[in-house]
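Need tokens for this chain, all 503 residues.
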Amino acid sequence: MVDASADTTPFFSDDNEEEGPTNNGVVPSPEEEESASGVSDRRAILTVAVLCFVNLLNYMDRFTVAGVLTDIEHFFNISDGKSGLLQTVFICSYMFLAPLFGYLGDRYNRKVIMCVGIFFWSLVTLASSYVSKDYFWALLLTRGLVGVGEASYSTIAPTIIADLFVKEKRTNMLSIFYFAIPVGSGMGYIVGSKVVTVAKDWHWALRVTPGLGLLAVILLMFVVKEPKRGAIEAHPEHVLHRTTWLEDMKALCRNPSFLLSTFGFTAVAFVTGSLALWAPAFLFRAAVFTGEKQPCLKEPCDNTDSLIFGGLTVVSGILGVASGVQVSKKLRIKTPRADPLVCAAALLLAAPFLYLSVMFAQASTVATYVFIFLGETFLCMNWAIVADILLYVVIPTRRSTAEAFQIVLSHLLGDAISPYLIGVVSDSMKTSHSYMWDFRSLQMSLLLCSFVAVGGGAFFLATALYIEKDRHLAENYVPSDDAPIVVPKRGRSTKVTVSSVLI
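Here are the structure tokens for all 503 residues:
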């Protein structure tokens, strides 16, 4: 039989992983004997390193646009609402394609899917850097197509890590993986602003990541090895079997911990999406309003705020992810509900600092940066923990589908609408075209983030009520009595239901 998880597996083939490992009389190599996943410890560490690099690259590209947003607005002469669309079309493409890649990721070779997606993303990103000022719609289109690469990657990469590690080691690896989000985001702002300063043209900022994307494809092809799904955590007496997409979705919708944590993460996505696109522009407008800086009348604009915000994002992200994981570990000793409680506390603590950062912008630039740093640190405490919650309350054969569902819901109600919503609200509040109202209108619209953060904290508190039960159900999952089993048919394996062979 063909092992669908092997590197040599054809892309379109039947996935027989649920039938258990089979050697066909071949003695496994020492590397394969080291782990039930079929991947050696050394290769597993290298795999996580490559996945982290790709994750960092994805977020670096996503926020390069935010780092040069002032230049883009001036170049295309667009309003705040249209500026917000740049992030919205990307997120919409990303979230609508996520279910497709989630379906494929649970059934076919995940490494092949990621390679194709990232290669396409690199080409489209490069193409977006050649858009002229009369074709803003073309920039929107190419930014939307960039979502293909991230959808093919984000739904799949965490499931590969889950198939390589278990328990504390999995949590540690996920925290390393999610370090790449704030670090990559911050590097996007930093690289974008520095490239514009050197090249005097914001288009060059979008030409950095495509080359690195091609390098990522090469690393995926030659370093990453596809692990066997669920093998590292499967109980000997249990045999996982594939169910239909509809059955998977029904099971996920009956999982309260998964649903509630997804709604909580939606609040995180809403707030981070708003800040990611608008924070540098807001800080620049505040400086113009207070007279600290001159308005942007010609390119390149002053991108100092993007550079500083990028640095703050990198540091706060590292501290946030690391502290979230460590606090959760220590609290697990006292309560099995530690993960959702830490997420709830982090969001509830982030809310007042985000509020203060918006309100202090006209009074003190230093205070604004301090409050932004604290708010982002608490927000970032959620990233690795939410991913870990999903992986231990969902069985292995449904994880890519669960990742895709969480991506769709959290982005649909989160950062797909928040940048555009903030921009539209800002435009609606302007009573005149002046530097004062450019700042005031954006200031008032950004206050919405604090209230959304409080709502997210409430969802995580609700998750804590169900987390023990749902984790137990996932860890002790037993297929139904009428589950497919494997019986010989004309010398080949096939799947039939138990009831059809009972006498």
